[in-house]
Amino acid sequence: MKIEYSKKIKQLPPYLFAEIDRLKEEYKSKGNEVISVGIGDPDLPTPDVIIDALNSAARDSRNHQYPSYDGLLVFRQKISDWFIKRYNVTLSPQDEILSLIGSKEGIGHFPFAFVDRDDHVLVPDPGYPVYRSGTIFAEGIPYYMPLLKENNFLPDLSAIPNDVKKSAKLMFLNYPNNPTSAVADESFFKSVVEFAKENNIIVAHDAAYNELYFDDNKPLSFLQIEGAMDIAVEFHSLSKTFNMTGWRIGFAAGNKDIIKGLGRIKSNLDSGIFQAVQYAAIAALENYEQLNRTNREIFQKRRDYACKRLDKLGWKYLKPQATFYLWIETIKGYDSKKMATKFLQDEGIVVTPGVGFGQAGEGYIRMALTVDVKILEKVFNKIENIKW
Ligand SMILES: *Cc1c(COP(=O)(O)O)cnc(C)c1O
User: Fold this and answer.
1) What are φ and ψ of residue 250, in 5° steps?
2) Which domain holds residue 17?
3) b vs e for 58-95, b when ≥16 Cβ sit within 10 Å of the residue's Cβ?
4) How many domains does the chain have?
5) What is the CATH number of the domain that holds 276?
6) Could you read off the pLDDT of 250-291 as tens digits, one per residue?
7) Whole-prediction pTM
8) How far is the CA of 388 from the centre of ligand 1 (A)?
9) Does 337 reside within a domain?
10) Which ligand 1 atom minimizes the distance to the CA of 245?
11) Nearest Cα residue to atom 12 of ligand 1
């Protein structure tokens, strides 16, 4: 039998990094060292206090059975306490918070609750690929909103055509932004609330990097904006905040009817998060101030070091106020794939070509600060050797 994939699967774009993966293997097979600054996965270990909480909760047999769909109420209560302290936003633990198996899971499933065939979904370009794939699986049509330098990497809402506005059900946004590292200000968020209300569009704001900020410039929660609770949910993740990418835990917060819709999809597809992991997440939030400060200090040192070296090279980039990404303009005569290939072929350094995040990402490469300063030093020394 010939195995036929669904139209949805076929509609997903081809794997852009296949060529890079091939070159990486080739470079390695010659006995050379490859250093990756391509992946947004922190190299730092999860703090002990979180691991200890997991250990003791894992030994409690009450946590061995199916967890509740919405998440332990004590976990959601802890999120609600944290949210008031951090953002001064009051959320009901019962119906305005939903735990997720990582925010990727929530984002990927989200369109199933609100999008029908051929509805539009507004998706940032460049952007985290899950906004697009979630839309395609729900048979929606992604409408790409370019994030351009001249607009501070914010979408131009006035450029969205009327017919798209009419058939759009959802808008995905993500600030602090992966991959550009841009941060949104209050006036932009206010204009999004207004736009969403005018056009009956649900806003799904991905706040995965809200706690990874520098110089005490705390990013806003979208839910702080007046009226946002009428039209929005916000996706939060413990992954980047507490170096917990492998643990798979996050949450959605916001409008209760929107949360309910996502909860209905999830209760049909998954069975919640291992409760011991939820207790570990409680320990993380209880120690947020201290753990988060330590983490931000480490990433800020890396950012400062990398920016100094980029300045020395004379390259153009946005100095990040948040996230662990550097969004660097490609060198004259090189597109993003060609530049990434050159990095790899000449010096064994893996970076991500901007076009991998969407057409509007062309003209940039992304470097992730997920290695320590010593390795960054080596990376930049190698970069200085490249003859362009
Ligand atoms: C890493 C990342 C996520 C996924 O986080 P998980 O909670 O680990 O699933 C979501 N959005 C963006 C933009 C990310 O970079």
Assistant:
1) -160, -170
2) 7-45+290-385
3) beeeebeeebbbbbbeebbebbbebbeebbebebebee
4) 2
5) 3.40.640.10
6) 999 999 999 999 999 999 999 999 999 999 999 999 999 999
7) 0.97
8) 34
9) yes
10) 8
11) 208
